[in-house]
Amino acid sequence: MFTVWAPAADRVRVRVDGTDHAMTAGQGGWWQAEVTGTDYAFLLGDDDRPLPDPRSLRQPHGVHEASRTYQHAEFAWTDRSWTGRQLPGGVLYELHLGTFTGAGTFDAAIERLGHLVELGITHVELLPVNSFDGTAGWGYDGVLWGAVHEPYGGPDGLKRFVDACHARGLAVLLDVVYNHLGPSGAYLDRFGPYFAGRTDWGAGLNLDGPGSDEVRRYVLDNALGWLRDFHVDGLRLDAVHALVDKRATHLLEELAVEVEALSTALGRPLTLIAESDLNDPKLVTSRDGGGYGLHAQWSDDLHHALHVRLTGETTGYYPDFATPDALAKTLREVFFHAGTWSSFRERTHGRPVDTRVLPGHRFLGYLQDHDQIGNRAAGDRLSATVPAGLLATAAAVVFCSPYTPMLFMGEEWAASTPWQFFASFPDPELAEAVRTGRRREFARHGWVEADVPDPMDPATVARSRLDWTEPEQDGHREMLALYRTLIRLRRQRPELADPRLDRLVVAAAPDGSWLVLHRGALRLACNFGPVPATVPLDGTPGEVLAAWGAPGLEGSSARLAPQSFALVSTG
């Protein structure tokens, strides 16, 4: 049976394997037809242009063409013993399927899972894998949310990847985009009142206007489908601050309720992680505490504070984080902007986190991520400009903090490959608009237009692929060994993963040049400065568990070389 929601249509047909069939109107604007076949598309009213199914599970020929039926029950899963992984205590690895390997497929990524296991990763976070127009792209221009991008391997490819991850003890988180649709192939508004207003990235969803009940159901069913039918362990919800919803029960809370019910039914933890620039702890506050009940959210403020400390950059949203206490403040309080002035927004921003109540594992800490690299004009990683000692020291801060650590693919070996913005829209007018728009945007910030990579050039994608020969090369090998050590210590020493924010002690130099994290009986001493520093440990130093550089222990202090750190046990 074929069904579709088209409440305003006076006539709907379904074209199945080349033959048109009339559909019957049912309750609530749903149409149906008892037909068998494989490839299908819908025709609305007297328009003879076939449109793909908004709830399509497979698009073998792209987002503008017919959908194809797909049966979840036909896949032979082998993960029956998988009981899932909770987020607390986890370490996340963000990767883009198309550039993680040379082939850019699920099957090729499976061959690299051993690297993630050896590194100590617990959760693999995939950038969006649903269908978008073209072959290559970041995934945030998706338009058919339930169909897996065919060049990656389609729905069976994703299932093979998830199955393989579970066999190796890895949970899988999937990045999903519900705040907007891409610019090519977004036909939802032809079927019903799906759209309401626009975001910075495209058409936004109608979540609270007339006809929005089915639109919300569209989102909820899509989210539950990834978790139930593809055995995914959690979702990263892109830019939830762009979800305009004035209902008494916000879509995020409704989603949290339904995911909790599904988690109970499946007998394994399911995780919801928000990306939000609101600096509002309500998102990750439990529902009985008046919040939405999501499990975690990204913490851009910690990234910004680390970035400024390492690079000295003070453009865009970075100026406020140039104060000497910015890093220490975000480590103690999560949000730097917590009801305080934001010069970037030209207003006060955020709300304080109650560190007595909220645990640190509900906030993701990271040194780099896909946005903060890819949205730079040249897509340059920190490793392109920041010395190895500073990179190592900042990584130690992330992994020894009370927050859930996340790293971006290749960061663990200080990859030299950039990660640039790329797309592959077949429409030449759209392609040119994206190309010129990006160059003009960066030109306004002082970049020479010719220096901004062409996002439509296949060479831009090629440059962004990881070089898997690097982990064995000098310089990269040492950084990888350090990341493995830090992750191993976080697992072996409970103090490092302790999420109790009210127990965290941070000591810092007045000028921010050095910093010490007190983690139980452990001390992480960091020297970000260009000269040696004597750093107080507030305890008798014992064993050095990890270090970059050769620290000297004197009395109750550590003598650190420039741009180095030491993780020390104290008596």
Automatic annotation (TrEMBL):
Location (main, coarse):
cytoplasm
* Pathway the protein takes part in: Glycan biosynthesis; trehalose biosynthesis
Show the catalytic activity.
hydrolysis of (1->4)-alpha-D-glucosidic linkage in 4-alpha-D-[(1->4)-alpha-D-glucanosyl]n trehalose to yield trehalose and (1->4)-alpha-D-glucan
Cross-referenced SUPFAM superfamilies: (Trans)glycosidases, E set domains
Q: Which UniProt keywords apply?
A: Carbohydrate metabolism, Cytoplasm, Glycosidase, Hydrolase
Record domain Glycosyl hydrolase family 13 catalytic: where:
75-490
Where located? Cytoplasm
The UniProt similarity line reads: Belongs to the glycosyl hydrolase 13 family.
Q: What is this protein called?
A: Malto-oligosyltrehalose trehalohydrolase
* Natural source organism: Amycolatopsis ultiminotia
Q: What is the lineage of its organism?
A: Bacteria, Bacillati, Actinomycetota, Actinomycetes, Pseudonocardiales
Q: Which gene encodes it?
A: treZ
